[in-house]
Amino acid sequence: MGCSIWRIRHNFGxxxxxxxVSFFFxxxxxxxYLFYCLTGICDPLPRLVNERQTLTxxxxxxxxxxxxxxxxxxTSSPQHQPSAQSHQNRTSxxxxxxxxxxxxxxxxxxxxxxxxxxxxxxxxxDGISVFNNFGTKKFPQAIIIxxxxxxxxxxxxxxxxxxxxxxxxxxxxxxxxxxxxxLQWYRNLMPRTLDGQITMEKTPSYFVTKEAPGRVFTMxxxxxxxxxxxDPVTRAISDYTQTLSKNPGLPxxxxxxxxxxxxxxxxxxxxxxxxxxxxxxxxNWLQYFPLxxxxxxxxxRLVTDPAGxxxxxxxxLDLKRVIxxxxxxxxxxxxxxxxxxxxxxxxxRCLGKSKGRxxxxxxxxxxxxxxxxxxxxxxxxxxxxxxxxxxx
Length: 392
Ligand SMILES: Nc1ncnc2c1ncn2[C@@H]1O[C@H](COP(=O)(O)OS(=O)(=O)O)[C@@H](OP(=O)(O)O)[C@H]1O
Known about the structure:
There is one protein chain. This protein is of the alpha/beta class. The chain contains 15 helices and eleven strands. The chain has helices spanning 2-38, 46-50, 57-72, 97-102, 116-123, 152-159, 183-189, 212-219, 232-246, 253-257, 271-274, 278-286, 299-304, 306-316, 364-385; strands spanning 136-137, 142-146, 165-167, 192-193, 198-202, 224-229, 258-260, 265-266, 294-298, 328-331, 336-339. Helix 12 packs parallel to helix 15. The protein is globular. Mean pLDDT is 78; it is low at 1-10 and 37-131. 3'-phosphate-adenosine-5'-phosphate sulfate (PPS) binds at residues 74, 148-154, 204, 238, 241, 302-303, 336-337, 351, 355-357.
């Protein structure tokens, strides 16, 4: 009897001790969870895409690799989705539907959607940087809206060394591809900023998207808009070079650029040609924004005098002129200016290999015809902007 009472007591005592231990562990878990929530770590996943991550020494190496990829990745977006050009009746390579049908051509393969976490590892990590939970996510006050192949990546990476500029590394494509996801989705992509800091993003396709001006205006009519423009002929060749690098079976530049070469009729349905008609696209933006809301950066001067162009941009953004000549050096091998100390790194760095790559040879006659085609549009553009870009 005495023995069984002792056994019962012993069992209950054992249970008591067990429940104390489990209570203790439950409290630890709750406190740990609360601590992480308060420090912001349990935010929803999209944050990973944009926020700078704390890097352990083990993943710093990978992150640097990703940083290079990011600089190298012209069309990186929060998720690869094959919808950007569908409204333009194009394949993902920018080929007109008609030409796509009539030529043997392997292209237009859309990348499958990627989960956020994977994309975050690929291009959301800004080299070695600090885990930043301070500040708030705001809509961008300034957007680099174009133009594709104008030098938009160089401009953004140069600007990012300014302590008062925080920018999304990837191209959000909100105002052209993902508008239906809503403004809160968009804002959540933004990095956190402190008072006095500017939030920025760049998506070069906005400039040629009919709906983009109205949509940006709806977000904020005081948004500052930056357009990096480049000689439309060189820009078209650069665009073609990019498509060719992904699809080596692509027809020649001249085949795509002309409806009929002998008649000299230019095919304006080809996006590589159409994007360069800057005056036409600018008209859409001026329906919503005054000229003073736009800054036109010369893609050519961004290469020959990066500090000078960045100086103009800093003034336009009401930023202190922090970025100057001393931040750049000219890399002879690359043939382009590079940063002595990019954001988040103490090592000099150039943009990736897809930026500043050699172009294929285009016959002189083709170039002359294209120059003739663009001349009136260029003059109109100079008139509209009050700037002579010297392309003729
Ligand atoms: N500093 C520096 N380093 C490398 N490249 C530079 C630089 N400044 C401007 N450029 C020019 O940028 C061109 C690519 O433009 P984008 O970045 O706007 O391209 S994209 O639309 O994002 O794909 C790219 O075009 P390509 O020369 O045809 O490759 C470059 O000429």
